[in-house]
Amino acid sequence: MSTDRTGAATVVLSPPPTPNGPLHLGHLAGPYLAADLAVRAANRRGDRVLALCGLDDHQNYVLAQARREGLPVDELRERNAELIRGVFKRAGIAHDGFTEPLVDAGYRAAVVEFLEELVLSGALPVEEWHTPVCPNCPGILHHAYVTGDCPQCGAVSSGGTCEGCAGYTPASALGRPHCTRCGSPATARRTVRGPVLRLEDHRAALEEAWLNAGLAPRVRRIAAQLLRQPLPVVPFSYPTDWGIELPSIPGHRVDVWGEMGLGYLYTIGQRLAPGTRGMAGHLDAWRDVDAVWAFLGLDNAFYYLALFPALFAAAGLPARVLGGLVVNEFYRLEGAKFSTSRRHAVWAHEFLDEEDPRLVRAFLSWDRPAPQPANFTLERYRALTGAWTGGSAAAAPDEAELARAEAALSLEQFDAALAARCLLGGGLPAAGAPAGGAATAAGELLDVLTGGAAEVPR
Ligand SMILES: [Zn+2]
Ligand SMILES: [Zn+2]
């Protein structure tokens, strides 16, 4: 147990990708590259940082996609997991911890153990709740299994959160909920009894956390909207066919976002105190957490802004652990939203196979869809990267520009697009040429952007 905070670590999370498909450039330009830039910049400053990511194996989008493709789910999951891991490796995006729930028995056991301990302590009370269900299909409608109208903005949403307005949209909140497995309207209703997290019970902790955290104006509006009404009650288990089984309630599995929050208690605890056991041991290890920062698209904001901080408060952690959220808007491709399901995407693994990863990183930093949305076109990619490597660069950044870039790579003021504009004035060495200059501040900061001069494995 530490008594001083000199070794305190900043935890940087990027949401684990769901292995229902490969990553596209929108994913890379959103949380994943940005988190890596911030982590590299923090390491350069000598800060203690833990970068955590993984795979979101237990989203039922994985099983739904396997059904759609007529493939065994393990085969589909492994195919996409391999592509996702390959993209991170080729793009030079490294993590201190990469959790794969499907193949990590220790993680799965800890999630169940912590959940049951929180039920026993009363932090996750066992209650009845009601939900629309499909008259034909088993289990309840949740996440990939349901579609309907968002109650706040009217956009078509699946169960979870709305991509249009970031509102919380369980099946019970959706207008005209439909089953995506058979297409039927969800005309039946079901009463479920299981553990829930009552966010309203943690209103004061959330208000304190939000007051002190680094949050973009867009995220503050989501927080304000949540506070205007009673905060939701979020089920932590229910009858379904995908996810971690909960032995104490036959047929129930752990809600995947509840799992992720409990999983963070475990993985962060293990990183800070390897081998620690029990929830008390993990919470004690969290005393070394200075702050948790998360990089994410706005559609995940509810979970990182409200669900996880409320769960952490329920577990007894102080509100100060929420450092902030670094959010991005949508990245568009030739004017339309990147879409895995509509196959309107540039796949990150294919693009990185063809292109110099240093240029891809520099361009996606320049073009990062935050704080404004951005639009990818191959034409702009060719024009800009050609100018950076073509020897036509105007002038290397001066001290003031380097200082601006450094600030723009900090968690509190993160703005990759600004950092890229400050740093790329002098251009980049051509592919294969020695990077040089890495010993200078300008060279080091360029290396943060490009991933450095090291040989990138193919
Ligand atoms: Zn909405
Ligand atoms: Zn159905």
Word description of this protein:
The protein is of the alpha/beta class and 458 residues long. Among the domains are: 9-120 and 257-331, Rossmann fold (3-Layer(aba) Sandwich); 355-450, no CATH class. It has 15 helices and 18 strands. Strands 3-2-1-14-15 form a five-stranded parallel sheet, sandwiched between helices. Strand 14 (289-297), helix 9 and strand 15 (322-328) form a beta-alpha-beta unit. Helix 2 crosses helix 3 (73-90) and helix 7 (256-272) crosses helix 8. The protein is globular, with a radius of gyration of 22 Å. Residues 150, 152-153, 155, 157, 162, 164-165, 167 line the site of one zinc ion.
Question: Could you list some keywords that capture this structure?
Answer:
single chain, 458 residues, alpha/beta, Rossmann fold, 40% helix, binds zinc ion
- How would a crystallographer describe the biggest sheet? 5 strands, parallel
What is the architecture of the domain at 9-120 and 257-331 at the second tier of CATH? Answer: 3-Layer(aba) Sandwich
- Average of the residue pLDDT scores: 93
Find the CATH superfamily of the domain at 9-120 and 257-331.
HUPs
Give the DSSP E fraction (strand runs of 2 or more residues). Answer: 15-25%
